[in-house]
Design goal:
alpha/beta; Rossmann fold; Zinc Finger, Delta Prime, domain 3; 3 domains; 5-stranded parallel β-sheet; 5 strands; globular; EC 2.7.7.7
Length: 346
């Protein structure tokens, strides 16, 4: 059964006794939880919905929640998040508890739906996983397939009332790199990019390849690389031009500060690993970064000492405080920071 079929069954009130949703695509997991919640009588939801931290619950507490009868509704829903037994951990459960609970899954009251949610991987060897599958559904919320992703992206753009052709949808998908094997991007990331593009274009206006390029996350990352390069080269005019372009294209000053800080922290890390004798490839693997990012950081180590980087990071923290307390305008603050470190001898 695919994800769409599962959601349609839930919407049609064809609900299983047990579910296990796991994986890295949090958007799909949260959507499934939302649809399951909607099956309850809204006026009685406080009585018939338990959301439990699976890292802290004990066996007795869990069974008590499962066996509590619904109040003025046909069903009670128990959502158990990050249950330790599904991850191969046993903080609150003994071997006997685990065996008992796995067998108990066969006897969950018909008036209760038990939903296991794990944000990440599970231990598929566990007998509990097999029991859940026998009594309900186990589904890995992984990346969407090509066609499903296309439909999902199109639906989000349509919802924002902007015009986009199929060719531009494909261009957007390819630009974002969501389907790349090494990509850590999620549907939530794509939705943020879709909303940013839609806001920039405006309702009833058309999305073009140029606009996608102009606002893409890859372009933002490249702009940050260029900005830091120009600061390292003491090139104030080009650094300011990049900054002004980013602000014009909708990037917040806080976001720019955050990305600058992140890249400088990467520069310090790769320098230390390089000193220890690691290659560019092994640095990328250890830090779980794209080789391109590591390559840029290695080049940028030549322009910034650790002392200067620490000073820049402290300046960013100070600027953040001043902006949030109304002591300085955000754009002026970041312009002052760039000017300071573009000066000779800084």
């Amino acid at each position: 059964m695919n994800y769409k079929d599962i959601i349609n069954d839930i919407k049609n009130r064809n609900i299983k006794n047990t579910y296990l949703f796991y994986g890295k695509e949090y958007y799909l997991i949260e959507n499934a939880i939302k649809e399951i919640k909607l099956t309850l009588n809204d006026g009685m939801i406080d009585f018939n919905l338990d959301i439990i931290d699976g890292r802290e619950i004990t066996l007795d507490q869990l069974i008590s929640s499962i066996e509590t009868l619904p109040f003025m509704d046909d069903r009670k829903i128990v959502i158990l998040k990050d249950f330790e037994l599904l991850k191969g951990k046993k903080k609150n459960f003994s071997d006997e508890d685990e065996k008992y609970f796995a067998e108990y899954i066969d006897n969950i009251p018909q008036t209760t739906t038990l939903v296991f949610v794990v944000y990440g991987d599970i231990d598929k060897r566990k007998s509990l996983v097999k029991k859940i599958s026998e009594n309900g559904i186990v589904f890995n919320c992984d990346k969407l397939s090509d066609m499903d992703l296309f439909k999902w992206v199109k639906k989000r753009f349509d919802k924002n009332n902007v015009i986009i052709d199929n060719a531009q949808i494909m261009y957007f998908i390819n630009s974002e790199g969501y389907l790349d094997k090494s990509s850590e991007k999620t549907l939530s990331d794509l939705e943020n990019e879709i909303n940013k593009i839609s806001s920039f274009v405006g309702k009833e206006n058309k999305v073009t390849n140029d606009i996608i390029d102009q606002l893409s996350q890859k372009k933002v990352e490249n702009d940050i690389f260029k900005l830091i390069d120009y600061i390292g080269q003491k090139n104030s005019s080009d650094a300011m031009k990049i900054l002004n372009d980013m602000i014009y294209e909708g990037e917040s000053v806080f976001g720019i500060f955050s990305m600058i800080a992140r890249q400088f922290k990467v520069i310090m890390q790769v320098r230390q690993l390089q000193i220890q004798g690691h290659t560019s490839k092994s640095i990328a693997e250890r830090l779980k970064l794209h080789p391109f990012v590591v390559g840029k950081a290695l080049k940028q180590t030549k322009n910034f000492s650790d002392e200067v980087i620490v000073d820049i990071l402290n300046s960013i923290l100070e600027s953040d405080f001043k902006i949030k307390n109304g002591l300085v305008r955000d754009t002026l603050s970041i312009e002052m920071l760039i000017s300071k470190y573009c000066k000779k001898g800084s």
